[in-house]
Each structure stands twice: as structure tokens, then as C-alpha cells.
Amino acid sequence: MAGVVLSSGDSSTCASVMENIGSNTQRVLSEDEENKLKKQDQTLVSEFKSMKLEAEAKRNWDLFYKRNDTRFFRDRHWTTREFEQLLGIEGEGKKILLEVGCGVGNFLFPLLEENEDLFIYGCDFSPRAVDFVKRDSRFNPERMNVFVSDITEDSLKDFVPEPVDVVSLIFVLSAIHPDKFLPALFSVASVLRPGGALIFRDYGLYDMAQLRFGRGNKISENFYVRQDGTRSYFFSVECLNQLAMEAGFDVFTCHYVNRRTINKKEGVDEPRVFIQGKFIKK
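Given the sequence above, the corresponding C-alpha cells read:
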């Protein structure tokens, strides 16, 4: 069904084979895939509905967590493995990380388990998600501080009283309206120390999730709405690099991660395209 895809590659409902192929080149579409994208343009989301979705964004994500509780995503142990060099949190002394879009703690808790000298600030758009983190048996207020925040409007300095070494944006920016990408990046830059790192992972251009949307799901270029009212943007390397530089970052690395999702029982073999990068605050 069109418009129901919500997977970052670690959904508990998703069977996948990971290829880990990095590339700076966009995936080449087949003729059938190009036709699917053209059909999406035949019926766009109306301006009225688009404005309504923006006004109800927080509510829609809170309802997502109400429906799915803590079950939708697995703990992201893969994140530590794949981002080990990008994180740059090893070494002497206390390190401080801010996770933007902490959800129910799938990245936060595994990372704390593997890094004894790490303190994490975590924030999310959804009050329900933050409440799930606080009620988790692993929650330790001596090593973490979680709070509700809209990074496109709130000042993160009001919640994070010290410069942080690393900010993570993992499947977060895509859920924000493209007009607010830069305000969000300026917001996270405001709490990073000079030389601090922004680590990023999100949906890449021509990911299977983008191709599966049908008519009536497209809001604007590479920006879509799902049936539950949550939204998703699909990034190109060029777009992300430009945004990062405009927000005051140097590009350390940025590339597509190409994989395939395979479910033999359902006869599914589909391409996944994510985008991953590290950006250094000037």
C-alpha cells in the first residue's frame, strides 16, 4: 500500500540483508521506477492539507508512539558499530553527546552501555517518547538528561547548559519541513563546541520508501506524507552538503549507504538508500 513505509532499516518488522556499500553517486532508476515517480506528481498534497500537517506534526508523532509503544524499532547497536569512527567519543575524560530525536531510547541506551565516560542529553518532539525513555528501567539521571523540544523553534541552550562534543541527527531531519532544515541545523550548531561533530543518518534519494509512495502522498520535491500523517524527506548528498555548509559546518564525510531489504517469504527484494555523514563545526 502506498504511504505506509516507515523504516530506518532497523524496524522489528523488517527482514534485511545489509550490503554496506558507500557511494557518492545517486542510484540509477529503472524505467518502471521513473514512471512511479512521475505518477506521484499527478496528484500532489493540497496547500491546505500541507499546512494542516505542519500544524499537527507534533500530535501525529505523539500518536505514532501511542500506537507503537516501544516496539517499532530495535535498539540500534548497529549505530555504534557503524559510527564508531564518526562519533569520536573515545579517549580520556568525560564526553558529552546530544541526541536529537531520541525516540524511546533505541540509540541512547546502547551507546551508554558501551561508553562509560559518556553523558547524553536527549530530546524529542514527542512528549510520549520522552516519557518512555524516563520510564525505562535503564534510565539513569546521573548519565542522561532527556527533554521535549522542537529544535526548529526552541533554543537548545535553554536545555543544554554546556557545550557538547557530538550531536546526532539520526532519521530526524527528514521528518521536518524542508523550510525548517536550516533553522534546525543552526539550533544544533549552537550547542556544539568549536570542532565538535554532527553525525547524520537519514533517508537517501530514491530509497524504496520514496518509490513506494503513490499519488496523493507527495507534498513537494522529495517530501512526502505517510498515511499516519508523519512526513519524510529524501536527501541527496549535494543537498545535505549544501545545508551543512550554510549552517556553519565543514564536510568531513557524506555519502549514500546502499543496501537491500529482502523478505523471501513475501517475495520482496528492494533497494534501500540511506545517507550518512559527519560534519565539523567551524
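The CA atoms of residues 34 and 211 lie 9 Å apart. Try to locate this feature in the C-alpha cell string yourself.
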